[in-house]
Design the sequence.
């Protein structure tokens, strides 16, 4: 059985070099009879399987084995299978049933079925990898693969799995920043702590990411950047963070909010495995920055998060209408909100709401809308007590697809119950990015006329009866006169 590989400080360079020359897919040269070829080129050459301080608590369930068919094949690759041998992890980790995909096995060996593929690839996760107590950073082992198909030559590959250095913790508490001017520089100073018993002997790396219209300035030569505009940075520091120490960057990183952006998010994490991701190719042009000691705090999070609000607003103004009709009528009044900008509310930002208090002497009988070929009666939440507000959330399904022109409205069906001199309702708007409160409320006027006399009321029937009696009497008098004259 393979022996466990132990590395001390002196052997750290050897492990690092070894990890870069791991075995990859060895596709045999095609012969004239070969019509299909498999590839394991996307199998990772090396990975940090877990950190030493995690020990037996570590579980990795997302380790995948990707298999591809080499483009240009004349027919599909039929009945692809991959045998995964993890015996090289003995003393480093253990594997247990788990993962996902069509894989079976036990002990150290699992077989994954990939079916028949034409010109694409497929991935399976053969097992869960579970850590062991007592390992040291740099300990490593190898997992090997053999891929076969009914009509393709076998190919093999391997992944070196390395136990990582200490877990470095970022601040637990989410930080909020407000008042950032779009286009102007803003600053963030990342920090971390090493709360483990291991030192970060290979140095540390900072991974900073932005979202929601924020971008990074490429100012430090020990950072490599990715994205257009730049949304990710990978910065490497030689500092060998000792156990129970905390650090921050010697200078802040600079970021910028785009025009019309209302908000954004920064997140960052720290790693004791400083190898740079392949997609971070743009090197910073300014002087490098360093790490300096700082006060320890609640630094146990995997990722630190910073929410950013800019000075841009999304100004909401109510859309109102008049309740006009006679007592007893039910009328439609279109109410809602108009977004005056200039900021643009994105899908992941809070859209806000408008609230409607109907006028005294009226009743809202329904707020109908259609959604997914069905008709619904209430597009807004009804008040819990009489005289309360109907609450209309702009992000709710009743308003789906509306607001493309900046206006979001819906018909309120309102019955006029009685005339109330001076009565009026209100529409009030709200969103967290509206910084102009003076135009958030508008009046719903009422123009109520008296009801028409009922066409079937007692007075009408009495008038009809009197008229009928008069008509009969007149007819009788007329007939008597004719007889008398004749």
Sequence:
């Amino acid at each position: 059985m393979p022996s466990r590989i132990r590395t001390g400080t002196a052997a750290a360079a050897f492990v690092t070099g070894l990890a870069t020359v791991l075995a990859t897919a060895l596709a045999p040269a095609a012969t004239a009879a070969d019509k299909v070829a498999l590839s394991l080129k996307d199998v990772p050459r090396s990975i940090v399987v877990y950190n030493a301080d995690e020990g037996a608590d570590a579980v990795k369930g997302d380790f995948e084995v990707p298999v591809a068919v080499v483009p240009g094949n004349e027919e599909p690759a039929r009945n692809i299978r991959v045998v995964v041998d993890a015996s090289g992890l003995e003393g480093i980790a253990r594997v247990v049933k788990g993962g996902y995909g069509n894989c079976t096995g036990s002990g150290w060996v699992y077989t994954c079925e990939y079916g028949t593929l034409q010109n694409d690839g497929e991935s399976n996760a053969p097992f869960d990898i579970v850590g062991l107590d007592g390992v040291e950073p740099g300990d490593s082992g190898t997992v090997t693969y053999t891929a076969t198909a009914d009509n393709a030559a076998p190919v093999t590959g391997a992944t070196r799995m390395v136990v990582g250095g200490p877990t470095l913790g970022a601040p637990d508490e989410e930080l909020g920043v407000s008042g950032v001017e779009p286009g102007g520089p803003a600053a963030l100073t990342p920090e971390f702590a090493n709360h483990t018993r291991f030192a970060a002997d290979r140095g540390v790396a900072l991974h900073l990411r932005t979202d929601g219209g924020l971008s990074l300035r490429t100012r430090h030569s020990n950072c490599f950047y990715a994205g257009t505009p730049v949304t990710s940075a990978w910065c490497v520091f030689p500092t060998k963070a000792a156990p129970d120490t905390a650090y921050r960057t010697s200078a802040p990183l600079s970021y910028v909010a785009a025009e019309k952006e209302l908000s954004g998010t920064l997140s960052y994490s720290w790693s004791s495995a400083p190898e740079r991701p392949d997609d971070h190719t743009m090197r910073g042009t300014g002087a490098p920055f360093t790490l300096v000691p700082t006060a320890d705090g609640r630094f146990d999070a995997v990722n630190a998060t910073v929410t950013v609000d800019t000075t841009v607003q999304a100004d909401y103004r109510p859309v109102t209408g008049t309740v006009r009709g006679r007592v007893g009528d039910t009328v439609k009044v279109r109410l809602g909100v108009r977004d005056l900008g200039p900021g643009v509310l994105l899908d992941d930002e809070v859209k806000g709401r408008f609230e409607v208090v109907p006028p005294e002497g009226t009743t809202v009988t329904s707020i109908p809308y259609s959604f997914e070929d069905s008709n619904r009666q209430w597009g807004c939440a009804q008040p819990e007590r009489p005289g309360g507000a109907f609450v209309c959330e702009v992000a709710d399904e009743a308003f789906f697809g509306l607001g493309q022109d900046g206006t979001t409205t819906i018909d309120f069906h309102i019955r006029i119950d009685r005339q109330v001199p001076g009565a009026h309702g209100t529409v009030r708007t709200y969103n967290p990015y509206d910084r102009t409160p003076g135009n958030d409320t508008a009046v719903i006027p009422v123009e109520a006329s008296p009801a028409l006399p009922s066409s079937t009321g007692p007075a009408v029937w009495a008038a009809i009866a009197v008229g009928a009696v008069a008509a009969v009497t007149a007819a009788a008098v007329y007939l008597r006169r004719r007889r008398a004259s004749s």
